[in-house]
Amino acid sequence: MDLAQIRREAFAMPVHNPAYPRPPFRFVNREYFIISYETDSDALRAIVPEPLTPENNLVHYEFIRMPDSSGFGDYTESGQVVSVRDPQGRLGNYTHSMYLDDEGPIAGGREIWGFPKKLARPVLAVDGNDTLLGTLDYGTQRIATGTMGYKHHVLNNEDERRKLADTPNYLLKVIPHVDGSARICELVRFYLRDVTVHGAWSGPAAIELHPHALAPVADLPVRRVVGARHVIADLTLDIGEVAYDYLAEPAGHANAAASTRQTGLDEREAELA
């Protein structure tokens, strides 16, 4: 490969056989089971990165089935999302943790957007004919179980579509340098596009989380379940944008550093004169 070819074709690893294609990615019949619960405010403040701030003390625990996703295939994921305010005062979602069972979206989600994804075994299914059941196993250990009465109350499809389409979503993306330091450290914002909701329901719900050293979902403990919803939708995961670069020098610091360098040059020139 010559230099021009490398620059032209480089996209993802492995270079000659990337783990995923280029975005965007389209999802058909994507199925959400989301349980919202109250947790400890101090625990939320400890994990939400500035300049975002927690909107309340709620965590949205998700189990998601993706049976038909372009480029990623058929897989399931589970994780925790927090309601936040961004610097512009908009209500958004910050994704704190994600666990899934497919190499492509793990690699692509991490490398492109910065999704906090790890390999595990989530399941979303109907149990005992009348219960929506979500489970998450890490290794041999069950770390999350969520249940909801199956389609007890119909929700408004347009309201759910707006929640998905109009809400900014945030991620903390970290990519290391070859020396182990941070090469990229960014707050990434993305939106879901072309959203169609096929159905949405609520019902009585419960959730149980178990401590685990490598999958610490229980570090945001359940104090009280406040609601749950089940949504089936088609949507596109759009490309992201950098909302904040943590490694960029603030303008004032950069100007001060430049002034210091210039002062040093002036002093050196004076010595030589």
Task: Please provide a written account of the structure.
By secondary structure, this protein is of the alpha+beta class. It has one domain: Acetoacetate decarboxylase-like, CATH 2.40.400.10. The protein contains five helices and 15 strands. The protein has helices spanning 3-9, 41-47, 103-113, 157-166, 251-272; strands at 25-38, 53-69, 73-85, 91-100, 117-119, 121-127, 131-138, 141-149, 153-154, 169-176, 182-190, 192-202, 205-209, 224-237, 241-245. Strands 1, 2, 3, 4, 5, 9, 10, 11, 12, 14 and 15 form an eleven-stranded mixed β-sheet that branches. Strand 3 (73-85) and strand 4 (91-100) form a beta hairpin. The chain is globular. The termini are far apart. Residues 252-265 have low confidence and may be disordered. This is Acetoacetate decarboxylase. One of its GO terms (molecular function) is lyase activity. It comes from Paraburkholderia tropica. It holds the Pfam family ADC. InterPro entries: Acetoacetate_decarboxylase, ADC_dom_sf.
Which short descriptors sum up this protein?
273 residues; alpha+beta; Acetoacetate decarboxylase-like; 11-stranded mixed β-sheet; 4-stranded antiparallel β-sheet; 15 strands; 49% strand; globular
